Each structure stands twice: as C-alpha cells, then as structure tokens.
Amino acid sequence: MGADQSVENIWARDDEPALAMGAGHSRGPTLEDALKLLTQREQTDLSAAFEHLVTTKGDKKKTKSKAGDDPHATFNFDAFKELTSGIIAHDISETLFKVMTKCSAKVKEGLVDKSGLFVTVALLVKGSLTNKAKLYVLIGSDGANQITTEQLHHITCSLISSALHSKQLNPRAVIWGGEDADSNARLARVFLDDATFNPEQSGGVNQFTAAELETWLANNSLVVRVFDTVFRSCFFSASDLSSDEIDSAAQVAARAMGQSVEEDEVREDPLLPTILKHHLHGPEAKDTATHSLLDATSVLFLNSHIPAEHRHLWRQLFASNLHGDSFATLMKHATGRGPTILLIEDTDNHVFGGFASGSWEVSSNFAGEPNAK
Predict the structure, then answer these.
(1) Strand (E) or helix (H) holding 45
(2) pLDDT of residue 19
(3) Count of CB atoms situated within 10 Å of the CB of 300
(4) Would the pTM count as exceeding 0.70?
(5) CA–CA gap between residue 252 and residue 259 (Å, rounded)
(6) Can you tell me the distance from the alpha carbon of 323 to that of 346, in angstroms, rounded to the nearest whole number?
C-alpha cells in the first residue's frame, strides 16, 4: 500500500472534524469510530458477517457464540473470498482484504480482526466522497496511490457487472435480459469519457490521483451508486437493503396509480426500473421484456438520465416485432400514455432514440417540453 494511501489518510474527512485522522493525528481509525457511522441494523449485519467469517476460516474450536465476544478473533483471506464469491471479482477481493489488514489492530500478517472489517466497511458504504475516491484508487490499482486509465476502466466494468448480479438488482436485471459484457465496457468508457474527466485532455497523462477521481465521482453519481450497491451487497442482508433498492411490482404499481404507499417502501429513483407486466390486451397480454432492444446495462444508464419520478416503473407500449412496422399503430399505442422512451435500431444495428417528457399527440403542430431529450 503506497505511503500516501495510509488508512489514516483514507479516513480523513474535512466535513467531520471528529473523524479526521490525517496529518496531526497519532492514531488510525478505530472500531468505535466506525460504529459512529453505521446504523444499528448495519452493525448487526456486520457482526453476523464477522462471526461467519471467523467460523469459516477453519477454526473448528471456535463457535459462533464465542467469535463475536473474542477480542482476538480473526479471519483469513480464504474465508473472505468465500463470503464475497459471486459478488465481486477475485482481484477486488484480494485488494480489499489488504485494506482490511491495514485497518486491523496488531494481528498476525494475513489476518483481519473485527476492527479491520468494521472500519473498512464504514469507509466503503458510509464514507465521504473523498473516502470513496481513495478506496476506488486503492482497489483498482492494487494498492498504489494513482490509477491508470486502463485500471480505472477495468474496475468500473467489474463493479457494473457486480452490481447487476447483486441481491438488489439481479431479479430486475434478469427480467431485462441480464448484463452484457460489451455493454458494460461501453458504459465504463462513457463514464471515463465524461467531459470533466477525459484522459485525452490531460496532456497525455495516463494516471490519476484520488483527488482527480473525487472530481470524477462528483460528476458521475451513477458510478457512486454502483459502488455503494456492490459493497453493501457484500456485507448487508437483503432486509437491510429493502429501503434502498428492493421493492415489489405491486408497490411501485400502487404508487404509479396514485395509491398510498409507505414512504420507506419504495425508492423513487431505483437503479433499475420494475417492468409492469400484463399491460397489453388479448393475445398480446404477456411479458414483453424479451422484445426490448435494451439489456440491463443499457437500462441502468438510461434510467439514470430520465427524471427521478419516472425511474421506478416502465412498461412496453410498442415493439415492431410484436405490432408491425406501421407508424399509425405506433401512434395508437403511444398517444396519451405519458412520458416515453423511443428506441430505433437501424440496418447497421445502431440503436438510438430519445425521451419525450410528455404524451405523444396527433396534431398539425409540433409539441414538446423543454426537458425532452
């Protein structure tokens, strides 16, 4: 781990002086510091995860009831790899485990204690943007204090894939046809080519500091949410995630129809929308998600760019392979249906389109709203 990327420097937070442990502070972050950031439910989940990790490492003499109470309890990388398998890539697990060892108290090399787990997770899911940027660099560069464009693209692709396989998003991602590796790579490139963070405009420089990455994250909220989704999925139970991303089709449909729904039951801007099924009539009354030109990665990107009030529930109104190529039929299905996204695939397999913030209308005059895209 590079000298400039010490745990003390990662933890430093200008917005919360009580937690600032950078220059001028004699100690690193402690378990008590981490507990200040984590909710009671998050602490309960992490304690359960720690007990599982300790008892997984092969110490048959240590029972779950003793693991949480033992101040010397530790776990190794094999246990951590088992916990995160299928959630994050192996290389990310390795580097994240190294960070945890640095956050641990005086334990044997290659082991992590309760403090190391809690401090690292607190930084990941509850830290400031500065914290997340430094961790992004650390994890993506295998412990260096700068990250290359290639490394940044690789970790961003990996996090997109992990998010779509997470317990929050996977049920919806499957409905949308699942992820696509090429789409993940394109989306990561879109993030990197953002006007505020374009390597080609940096005089040929191919490495970026955590400070530069913080600016990039500040202008790419979707990247931050993907980051949070992945690491929350690693350490917290499904019940703890319900207020953030998990909601039923019945709940979002009720909200869409103006019915009362508890405020904490449905997030207004989920990363992936729920598809309202059985919205057609007659022989067409079936799930038409398979007829979409979009995969889950594309939906993830598009959903983040439409108004928040439209992000929770989508329905397919028209598909040429279902309804034919008639423009009149398209208008019949789209007129008066509210905001829509129109997608067109040309003969060269290029997909393009736009967002209409108001309903389609049949008129002799042009119509539209300023926030249409």
Answers:
(1) helix 40-56
(2) 32
(3) 27
(4) yes
(5) 10
(6) 18
In whole angstroms, give the CA distance from residue 295 to residue 299: 6
- The predicted structure's pLDDT at residue 136: 94
Q: Are 72 and 112 in contact (CB under 8 A)?
A: no
Instruction: Give the pLDDT of residue 281.
Output: 44
Instruction: State the CB neighbour count (10 A cutoff) for residue 335.
Output: 12
pLDDT for position 132 = 93
Spatial separation of the C-alpha atoms in residues 123 and 6, rounded to whole Å: 13
Find out whether 331 and 317 touch, Cβ atoms under 8 Å.
no
Q: From residue 248, how far is each of 168, 266, 267, 276, 295 by CA, in Å?
A: 12, 8, 11, 10, 21
Sequence-ordered list of residues with C-beta below 8 angstroms from that of 354, at least 6 positions apart, any chain:
341, 342, 372, 373
Query: Within a 10 A sphere around the Cβ of 19, how many other Cβ atoms?
Result: 19
Q: In the chain, which residues have pLDDT < 50?
A: 1-6, 13-26, 58-65, 195-196, 201-202, 239-267, 278-290
Tell me the CA distances in angstroms from 334 to 228, 318, 355, one per residue in order.
Answer: 36, 7, 13
Task: Kindly state the tokens that stand for 269.
Answer: 């801007």
Q: Which of 79, 76, 138 is nearest to 101 (CA)?
A: 76
HSE-up of 304 (CA within 13 Å, CB side)?
A: 16
Sign of CA dihedral 98, 101, 102, 107: negative
26 Cβ neighbours under 8 A, 6+ residues apart: none
Tokens 């207020």 belong to residue: 243
Task: Determine phi and psi for 79, rounding to 5 degrees.
Answer: -65, -40
DSSP-based three-state secondary structure for 342: strand
> Distance (Å, rounded) from C-alpha 134 to C-alpha 132?
5
For the stretch 293-350, pLDDT in tens is 888 899 999 999 998 888 888 888 888 888 888 888 888 888 888 899 999 988 898 8
